[in-house]
Recover the amino acids of this structure.
């Protein structure tokens, strides 16, 4: 029996069934829903899911017939998408160690150009061979900015921003809060000076959830689609943007993995970036 939950705990679930065809998906819809360079999903029979707190789930049809669910309180992705009686389970939300492990990378054709795949798993441009689900058109891109700044946007496009300045750094974080917030193997965030990330559209659609006992930890997301959004921290003079929601190459990439002592048991770090067991201060 597997157990999963959102960041705030309003929604939690069990899966009493197999987790099959576990893959890392690099499609733009997954990237924006999770805010990460890839999301990890496996299929289970729809009848295997038991969910508590379903009244907190907002559903957004990211394409015809494909509905993504997220916790309306904290923005975590929760199981929702059902295809032919099979549910897609976001593996990053599990608090248990699934028996299964990722088998492949899918939608590598939509991968963010800076993200390098370094494990030995098979890579497919779209779905795995034998999966006859229809391949969707690419997500519409927001219009380019006059100054050519790197753009970012949520899944539905209501929230848009530009990177208008030099970022400070970017990092991969494997802490359990980040994993539950992003419902993914780990977070990958860009940190910039406060005014270098400018929300150009939909600021009023950005919802925010702060963990009660955390000093800083906050998740910001589009209340329409659950796509992740940048957040501004005036107190620390920084802005943080999830790397998965960039439409253009931000030019700054993660240079470390931190909190690897909390790494998901099903995810192996195979790149050469330095690994820190705990957190590393920004400056
Ligand atoms: Zn929640
Ligand atoms: Zn995907
Ligand atoms: Zn949105």
């Amino acid at each position: 029996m597997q157990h999963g939950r959102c960041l705030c705990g309003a929604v939690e679930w069990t899966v009493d069934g197999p987790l099959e065809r576990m893959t890392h998906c690099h499609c733009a819809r997954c990237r924006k829903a999770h805010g990460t360079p890839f999301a990890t999903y496996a299929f289970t029979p729809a009848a295997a899911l038991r969910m508590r707190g379903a009244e907190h789930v907002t559903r957004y049809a990211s394409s015809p017939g494909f509905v993504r669910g997220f916790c309306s309180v904290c923005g975590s992705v929760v199981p929702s998408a059902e295809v032919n009686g099979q549910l897609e389970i976001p593996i990053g939300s599990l608090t248990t160690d699934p028996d299964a492990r990722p088998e492949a990378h899918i939608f590598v054709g939509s991968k963010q150009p800076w993200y390098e795949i370094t494990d030995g798993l098979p890579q497919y441009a779209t779905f795995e061979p034998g999966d006859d689900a229809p391949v969707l058109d690419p997500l519409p891109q927001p219009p380019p900015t006059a100054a050519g700044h790197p753009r970012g946007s949520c899944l539905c496009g209501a929230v848009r921003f530009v990177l208008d300045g030099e970022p400070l750094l970017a990092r991969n974080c494997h802490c359990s809060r980040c994993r539950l917030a992003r419902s993914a193997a780990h977070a990958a965030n860009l940190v910039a000076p406060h005014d270098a990330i400018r929300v150009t559209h939909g600021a009023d659609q950005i919802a925010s959830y702060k963990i009660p006992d955390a000093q800083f930890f906050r998740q910001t997301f589009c209340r329409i689609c659950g796509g992740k959004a940048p957040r501004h921290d005036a107190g620390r003079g920084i802005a943080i943007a999830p790397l998965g929601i960039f439409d253009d190459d931000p030019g700054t990439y993660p240079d470390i993995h931190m909190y690897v002592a909390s790494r998901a048991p099903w995810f192996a770090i195979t790149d050469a970036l330095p690994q820190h067991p705990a957190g590393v201060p920004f400056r």
In short: The two ends are 42 Å apart (CA to CA).
